[in-house]
Write a structure and sequence with these properties.
By secondary structure, the chain is an alpha+beta fold. It contains four helices and ten strands; from the N terminus they run H-E-H-E-E-E-E-E-H-E-H-E-E-E. The N terminus is likely disordered.
C-alpha cells in the first residue's frame, strides 16, 4: 500500500467511529413535501484568516449561515459541473478537481430566524421552499444515469471561514473519485460531469480540520482517455 493510501486509510479509520457516534452535528435533512430545511452552525470565535471578523457577531453569523445554506441547497437542487483529472505518478499528472455551481441560489430566498448562541457557536434552522418543477428535478437525481457515492473531505481551520466551503468541495472531490474508481477500467485523463448533493452535508471540527461528510449523486458526461487526449 502506498504512503498516500496508508494516510487515507488512517484518516478514515479515525472518522468512522465519529460518524457512528453522531459527531457530525449539522444537517441530515432531505427535501420533504417541497421543503428543504436543516440546521446550520458557525463558530462564535473561530480561528480567523486575515480579514475575518473576530469574534463573530450575531448579524455576521446569520449572514454566514444563509450563505452556506444557499450553497448547500443550490447543490441539492441544481448541483455542480465538475472537471476531474486523476493523479498519475507515472505520467507526472497531479490530481485536479474543478467545481462550479450550475445555479447560484439567492440567500434572500431562504427563511431563517435569529441564530441562537451557545457552546461557542451560533445555530439556526434555514429553510427553502422548492417549487414543483424543482422538486421534479431533485427527484430525477434518484434515477439513471445518476449514481450514488459519498466522500469525507477536510480543510485546515487556519483558512478561516472559507475553509468550511473548501471542506465541502474536498468531500465532493472524493465522492467523484470513489465513483470513478469503480467505473473506469482504465484511468482517464480527464472526466467531465455533474454532481449533486443527495442530502445536507454534515460538518465538524476534528483535530484542527473542518471535516465534511457528503452523500452525492454523480453523472459522467465525458471521460477522455489518454489515447485521444
Amino acid at each position: 500500500m502506498s504512503v498516500r493510501a496508508q494516510a487515507a486509510a488512517a484518516v478514515l479509520s479515525c472518522l468512522v467511529p465519529l460518524l457512528a457516534s453522531g459527531a457530525f452535528a449539522q444537517g441530515q435533512a432531505r427535501a420533504s413535501s417541497g421543503l428543504l430545511r436543516a440546521e446550520f452552525w458557525t463558530e462564535a470565535e473561530p480561528v480567523p484568516a486575515v480579514g475575518d471578523e473576530w469574534p463573530v457577531s450575531a448579524d455576521t453569523a446569520r449572514g454566514r449561515l444563509l450563505d452556506e445554506a444557499a450553497w448547500v441547497f443550490g447543490g441539492m437542487v441544481w448541483g455542480f459541473d465538475f472537471r476531474y483529472s486523476p493523479y498519475d505518478k507515472t505520467r507526472g499528472i497531479e490530481e485536479r478537481f474543478d467545481l462550479e455551481p450550475i445555479h447560484s441560489l439567492d440567500a434572500a430566498l431562504l427563511e431563517a430566524g435569529k441564530p441562537s448562541s451557545g457552546d461557542g457557536s451560533y445555530r439556526d434552522y434555514v429553510s427553502f421552499q422548492v417549487d414543483p418543477s424543482l422538486a421534479s428535478l431533485v427527484a430525477s437525481y434518484g434515477r439513471q444515469p445518476w449514481s450514488d457515492s459519498q466522500g469525507i473531505g477536510r480543510a485546515d481551520i487556519g483558512g478561516g471561514v472559507k475553509a468550511r466551503r473548501q471542506a465541502y468541495v474536498d468531500a465532493l472531490r472524493l465522492a467523484v473519485r470513489a465513483y470513478l474508481q469503480g467505473l473506469e477500467p482504465n484511468k482517464p485523463r480527464l472526466v467531465r460531469g455533474r454532481v449533486v448533493l443527495g442530502a445536507v452535508p454534515s460538518l465538524a471540527v476534528i483535530e484542527g480540520f473542518y471535516t465534511a461528510q457528503v452523500r452525492a449523486r454523480v453523472m459522467v458526461i465525458e471521460a477522455v482517455p489518454y489515447a485521444v487526449y
